[in-house]
C-alpha cells in the first residue's frame, strides 16, 4: 500500500504523554513547554513504573495547567480542567430556568447548533461559588437538564514547541467522489504532495490557525484515505492557550455534520462531558462515524473521552513490531490499533522527523475507514465497519481484546 504523504513538522518528537503542558506566553496549542517527563524513554521502563510515572505526571500537569491559568480555568466536579465560572446546560425547561435565576445563576447566552438540532444554555455562576459545587447545585435545581462544565480537551500525542506554521493549507481540487473526512484539532498547514480539497473553519480566538498537531494528523488521515479526498478541518484552539473547549467541539461537530463529513477524527482527550456527548450522539445519528484516540495516560488510567463514548471507534497505537505503546490507554472500548510510533512525515527543507502517540494512530484508521464510508449513509455504517474489521490483523488475544481491539489497521502506513 502507498505510504502517507509528507508534511512539515518541527524537530524529532520523544514519546508523548498526551497531557496538558504549561503554555508559553505565546499561547495556542503549539505553545506548549514540554516537561522533563516527556524526555523519558517509556519503552525502557517496567509496566509498573510506566503506570506510576504517568499517574504522577497527569496529576502534576493538570494541577500546573490550572494554576497557570487560574484566572480563566478551574477544576470541575471530577477534577477536570474547565473554563472558570461557566456551566453549560441542555434540555432546559422554563421552570428550571427560573429556579436557576432565583438561586443567583445568570444566563450568558443560549446557542443553537442547528445542524445537530441541539440547544444549550450558558450560565454564569453566583459570585464566589466553586465550579464543582455549582455543578451539583445546578443539577439539583434543574433535574430535567444535563449540566456540564466547559471542559478543556488536549491532544493525545504532542509535538515539540514550534512557532505557528503560518499559512493555512490551500484549498485544492480533490478527485470526484472522494471521501469526506472531518478533523477536530488545530488548524492545518500546507500539505505538499496531497491531492485534497481542504476547507477550514475556526471555533476559537485566532482560528483557523495552522498548527503542527493538526497538520500532522491531517496528513496521516489523507494519506491513508488516498487521493481525491476532501478534508474539513475545525480548529478548536486557534491562538488561545485555554482553547479546545467542550462548547467549541460541539460547534465543530455541528459544522462538520453540515459539511457532510462521513468520518470525523478527534485526536483529543478529556472527560465525559454531557454537551460533547450529546453532540457526538446527534452527529452519529445523522450518519457520521467518529474515530478518536484512546489517549496516552497509560494502562491504569480511566478511559479517556470521546474515545470511550458508545459508538465511537477508539484507536490505540503500536510500535513497529506490533506491540502496543506502553503509554496507550486500555479498555473494552478499544476498537482498532494502528501505527503510533516511528511515523516519519517529512519536515521543511527536506528534513525528516518522527512522531509518536495515539493521536497519530487514529487518523490512519479514519483514513482507511473513509475509503469504505466516503459519505454519510446510516444504512451503510455496519457494512463499512465490518469491512474495516475484515482488514484488521489480529494482535494479542484471539479476537477483540481491550489492548488491540479488533486488531491492526493500516500497518504499513506512515513509514
From TrEMBL:
It holds the Pfam family Peptidase_S8. Transmembrane segments: none annotated. Coiled coil: none annotated. Residues 180-407 form the Peptidase S8/S53 domain. PROSITE patterns: SUBTILASE, SUBTILASE_SER. SUPFAM superfamilies: Subtilisin-like (SSF52743). The active site is at 185 (charge relay system), 213 (charge relay system), 359 (charge relay system). Keywords: Hydrolase, Protease, Serine protease. Belongs to the peptidase S8 family. PANTHER family: CEREVISIN-RELATED, PEPTIDASE S8. This is Peptidase S8/S53 domain-containing protein. It comes from Blastomonas fulva.
Amino acid at each position: 500500500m502507498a505510504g502517507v504523504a509528507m508534511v512539515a513538522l518541527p524537530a524529532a518528537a520523544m514519546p508523548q504523554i498526551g497531557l496538558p503542558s504549561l503554555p508559553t506566553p505565546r499561547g495556542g496549542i503549539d505553545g506548549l513547554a514540554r516537561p522533563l517527563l516527556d524526555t523519558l524513554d517509556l519503552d525502557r521502563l517496567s509496566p509498573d513504573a510506566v503506570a506510576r510515572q504517568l499517574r504522577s505526571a497527569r496529576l502534576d500537569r493538570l494541577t500546573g495547567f490550572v494554576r497557570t491559568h487560574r484566572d480563566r480555568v478551574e477544576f470541575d466536579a471530577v477534577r477536570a480542567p474547565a473554563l472558570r465560572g461557566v456551566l453549560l446546560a441542555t434540555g432546559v425547561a422554563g421552570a428550571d430556568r427560573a429556579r436557576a435565576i432565583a438561586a443567583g445563576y445568570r444566563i450568558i447566552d443560549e446557542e443553537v447548533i442547528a445542524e445537530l438540532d441541539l440547544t444549550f444554555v450558558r450560565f454564569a455562576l453566583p459570585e464566589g461559588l466553586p465550579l464543582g459545587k455549582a455543578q451539583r447545585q445546578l443539577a439539583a435545581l434543574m433535574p430535567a437538564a444535563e449540566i456540564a462544565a466547559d471542559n478543556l480537551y488536549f491532544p493525545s500525542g504532542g509535538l515539540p514547541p514550534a512557532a505557528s506554521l503560518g499559512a493555512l493549507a490551500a484549498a485544492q481540487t480533490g478527485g470526484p467522489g472522494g471521501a469526506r473526512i472531518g478533523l477536530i484539532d488545530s488548524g492545518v498547514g500546507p500539505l505538499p504532495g496531497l491531492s485534497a480539497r481542504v476547507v477550514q473553519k475556526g471555533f476559537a480566538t485566532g482560528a483557523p490557525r495552522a498548527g503542527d498537531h493538526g497538520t500532522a494528523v491531517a496528513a496521516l488521515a489523507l494519506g491513508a484515505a488516498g487521493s481525491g479526498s476532501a478534508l474539513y478541518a475545525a480548529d478548536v484552539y486557534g491562538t488561545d492557550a485555554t482553547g479546545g473547549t467542550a462548547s467549541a467541539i460541539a460547534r465543530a461537530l455541528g459544522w462538520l455534520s453540515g459539511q457532510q463529513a462521513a468520518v470525523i477524527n478527534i485526536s483529543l482527550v478529556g472527560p465525559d462531558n454531557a454537551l460533547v456527548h450529546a453532540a457526538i450522539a446527534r452527529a452519529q445519528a445523522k450518519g457520521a462515524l467518529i474515530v478518536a484516540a484512546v489517549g496516552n495516560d497509560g494502562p491504569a488510567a480511566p478511559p479517556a473521552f470521546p474515545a470511550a463514548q458508545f459508538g465511537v471507534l477508539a484507536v490505540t497505537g503500536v510500535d513497529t513490531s506490533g506491540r502496543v505503546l506502553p503509554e496507550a490507554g486500555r479498555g473494552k472500548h478499544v476498537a482498532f490499533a494502528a501505527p503510533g510510533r516511528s511515523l516519519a512525515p517529512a519536515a521543511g527543507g527536506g528534513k525528516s522527523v518522527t512522531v509518536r502517540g495515539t493521536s497519530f494512530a487514529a487518523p490512519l484508521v479514519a483514513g482507511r475507514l473513509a475509503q469504505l464510508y466516503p459519505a454519510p449513509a446510516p444504512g451503510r455504517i455496519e457494512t463499512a465497519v465490518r469491512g474495516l474489521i475484515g482488514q484488521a490483523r489480529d494482535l494479542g488475544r484471539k479476537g477483540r481484546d481491550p489492548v488491540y481491539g479488533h486488531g491492526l489497521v493500516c500497518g504499513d502506513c506512515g513509514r
